[in-house]
Design brief:
single chain; 295 residues; alpha+beta; phage-related protein like fold; six-stranded mixed beta sheet; 15 strands
């Protein structure tokens, strides 16, 4: 049983169990390509590289055959599960039913795990590529050769200049910014940095009065996703990804399952259980920019 339930025993009537502050819904699932798969591994997308049209210079010339480069990105499933027990004696001692809040708590934990898989895939050095997943495509090597896709910290936090650099890198990589949905993930610290930027809050640059509710939801074509789960680099700079939706993929291997049932082997305590199998991968490096922010 959960050793924390006795703390909810009460002598006064209560009709509600409140969850502590936490992220409940997934904040990234709707910002990446998400598909359902089966099996031990899945091909997320078959990639076709760019080709060059050949100029025709003579009449009745042979038809030119231009080889189209092919590649494949793979996603590997990761299993997650969660369970807790609620003793009958615990339910008797409180008027509130724990089953629904426990199920909600379980779903929140699973959604956060899904976000963690997506976040880890942004700058992964173990992304699998190739017909048989035999090639490792790492982010470190990519940004070494494509410096514009990593915006340096410069001992500053999130700035308009950094967002401009990220947008410039995506456009220079021929990302279709007119059709693609663009996102930037940031923590409360970077959001606060932007609140201090006049361009981000002035009505001269926005159609929505930002300072009315104190939240910047979008700017310069980027939709902002606030999360406290982003990692840092070796210099403690926050690694904030900017990306086009088709640059990242989430693979869900079957539906997330939830069960609430009695456990005869646990004195008929109620078990709340949930499990899910999913994984994420970076689809195309050129559709992602790493923005480093000093905190």
């Amino acid at each position: 049983m959960s050793t924390q339930i006795p703390t909810s025993f009460t002598e006064e009537f209560s009709s509600q169990v409140n969850l502590l502050s936490q992220q409940e819904p997934s904040r990234f699932r709707g910002a990446v390509m998400a598909k359902t798969y089966t099996g031990k591994v899945a091909q997320v997308v078959h990639q076709l590289g760019p080709v060059v049209a050949q100029k025709r210079t003579t009449r009745h010339a042979d038809t030119p055959l231009i080889n189209t480069p092919h590649d494949t990105r793979w996603v590997y499933p990761v299993d997650y599960e969660w369970a807790d027990l609620i003793d009958k004696q615990d339910e008797i001692r409180t008027i509130a039913s724990f089953q629904s809040p426990y199920a909600r708590n379980a779903a929140a934990a699973m959604n956060r795990a899904m976000d963690d898989e997506i976040i880890a895939a942004f700058f992964s050095d173990t992304t699998k590529t190739g017909e048989d997943a035999g090639t490792t495509t790492d982010w470190t090597t990519f940004v070494s050769a494509n410096a514009a896709h990593q915006v340096a910290s410069g001992s500053t936090g999130m700035t308009i200049a950094k967002l401009r650099s990220a947008k410039k890198a995506l456009m220079a990589a021929e990302v279709d910014v007119d059709r693609e949905r663009l996102f930037v993930a940031l923590t409360a610290e970077q959001h606060d940095d932007l609140l201090g930027e006049t361009q981000a809050t002035s009505l001269d640059y926005n159609t929505t009065p930002t300072l009315v509710d104190g939240k910047i939801s979008s700017f310069m074509g980027f939709n902002f996703i606030q999360t406290e789960r982003l990692g840092v680099d070796g210099s403690a700079n926050r690694r904030c990804p900017a990306w086009a939706e088709s640059g990242m993929a989430l693979g869900v291997f079957g539906p997330i399952m939830g069960r609430i049932e009695e456990r005869a082997d646990k004195s008929y305590a109620t078990q709340v259980y949930t499990c899910g199998t999913f994984g994420a991968t970076r689809v195309e490096e050129k559709k992602i920019v790493e923005i480093l922010c000093s905190e």
